Every structure is written in structure tokens, then in C-alpha cells.
């Protein structure tokens, strides 16, 4: 039976024990979602399975629930979806950890909200092994940045935001508003999240936001300057972050989003080829989660919702 969980320490203790623990299910991530104006429901099944659900508001008083990488099995999920399918709920969106049996339920496969494939670097290897495991060009760029005298240290969100504007303009992608990143750093605090930056002669050339939870350090957001790109600042930045995570006892460095190995995979994006190449240069294992899906409670309104999303994308 599902019951609402109220104990923060117990929640994080149990969720963080999962292999490749997901910060998306951490208590503080739920608090961050609350700050963004969303309702968060933390549920426990027989005091063993813990699932954090986020309520996303839609027009006309509708909403949908979203479960990002929650640990749930088939029997528990069946009861969970019944509980969440209450008045005003259009659908339940799930980025699953494992395959769930949905044959008898009205569902539609959808693109994952979170990256479907990620790259996990095993931090149980020694620093020497990690260096040897890099692609030659990556190792060369790390050494080059070191020889040029770049330094890496904990940074501030303002430097990240400044570089993020340059990055989004240069690479032509849509970013979160500045306030999103500020609140992320403020709510998760200095233990669960850190801003890192790489500098040359006092000038910040690259910055990264890294989240720490359970056995995993996750590279969530990154940005770099338009100038001095020949100094290879992002390479040394991540190498220092990896070394720090290793010293602090984390087992994995999660690069967070890469292309799958197969180009015909539905999650493969041409626009991700460059960033995937960069991340893969540090080595690691590509891991892809099962397909995401919407479990539909109100079919007619769900069709209206999908149509409005399609029309909106055409107008952008």
C-alpha cells in the first residue's frame, strides 16, 4: 500500500542506496520543484519502494504527474497509477528505470524528459587507469590545459550564467531562465550541488554545475567562453571534477546525456554528436533506460493536449 513519506533522512538514506542513485528522486530535488511552484508527492510502498512524483500544471485546470527515474515494480506501479489518476489528472508521464508491463493500460511512448542514454564513468579505477582509458586526443587536451597553466576551483553561479549566455547563442539551444539555475544552487545547497570553473589568468573560460547524491556525481549543466577555446578549458575542468569526486568516495561520474551507440535508436540526436564525442573521450559505459511513456487517463483531452503541443512547435 502506498503511503506519503514525511521523513527526509529516511527517504534519502534509502533512495541513495540504489546503484547509480538518481538525484531526481532525492528529497532536495523535490524541494527544488516546490520552489518552482509544483506539487511534490513522495510515496512509500510497504516501506521498501520510494517514488517521488511531481505535478505539472496545464491550462484549463488540468495537470499531469511526472515520475523521473523512480524505483518501482509492476505490482506497485499498478496501484500507484490508480492513485495518481484522480480528478484533473490528464496523464501520468514516466521516465522508467526498468521495463514495466503496460499491455492492458492506455499508454503512448513519448520522448524521455530526461536524457534516455547516459555515460557512466567508473571511479573505482585509479587516476592512472582513468587517464589511460581516455582517448588520446582527450588526454592530450587535458595535458595541454595543464601545461598552459589553467586552474580549476569552486566557482559562483554568476560566472556560469555569463558563460551560459555565450554557449546558448553559439550552439543555438534553448536554456533555462537564469533564475532556474540560481534557485537550483540555492535550494540544493553546497553539499548536494557545486559550481566549478576553469580559469586562465583570472578569466573564467568554462563552468559546470555538478549534483552529488548517493554514490554518483552528475554533470548536469555546462558552459564555456567564446574566446581562448584553444586552451581546452572544459577538458581540464572535468578532469579536476572527476578527481575530486573520486577522492570524496563517489563511485560514478554520470555525464548525464549522450547519444546511444546505435544511430537508428529513437533517442539518437544529430545535434548531440559533438557533445557525445567530447564526453566519450573520457571513456565510460553507455547506459540507456527503457522508453518513456504517458499513461493516459482522459483520452480526448490528451489528444487536444498533444495537438496543441504540435501546433506550438510549428510556430516556434
Summarize the topology.
Layout: E1 2-4, H1 8-15, H2 27-35, E2 39-45, E3 49-57, E4 63-68, H3 74-84, E5 89-95, E6 107-110, E7 117-122, H4 127-133, H5 136-147, E8 151-154, H6 157-171, H7 178-192, E9 193-200, E10 203-213, E11 216-224, H8 233-247, E12 252-254, H9 273-280, E13 285-288, E14 292-296, H10 299-315
Parallel strand pairs: 4-5, 11-12
Antiparallel strand pairs: 1-2, 2-3, 3-4, 5-14, 6-14, 7-12, 7-13, 8-9, 9-10, 10-11
Helix pairs in contact: 2-7, 5-8
Explain briefly what this protein structure is.
The protein has 316 residues and is an alpha+beta fold. The chain has helices spanning 8-15, 27-35, 74-84, 127-133, 136-147, 157-171, 178-192, 233-247, 273-280, 299-315; strands spanning 2-4, 39-45, 49-57, 63-68, 89-95, 107-110, 117-122, 151-154, 193-200, 203-213, 216-224, 252-254, 285-288, 292-296.
Can you tell me about this structure?
- This protein starts with a strand and ends with a helix.
- Helices cover 37% and strands 27% of the residues.
- It has ten helices and 14 strands.
Structural Rg: 20 Å
Strand pairing plus helix content: what structural class?
A: alpha+beta
Strand content: 25-35%
> What count of helical segments does DSSP give?
10
Overall outline? globular
Q: Mean of the pLDDT scores?
A: 93
Strand order of the largest sheet: 1-2-3-4-5-14-6
Largest sheet entry: 7 strands, mixed
Regarding quaternary structure, what we see is: single chain
> Which regions are unreliable across 5 or more consecutive residues at pLDDT < 50?
none
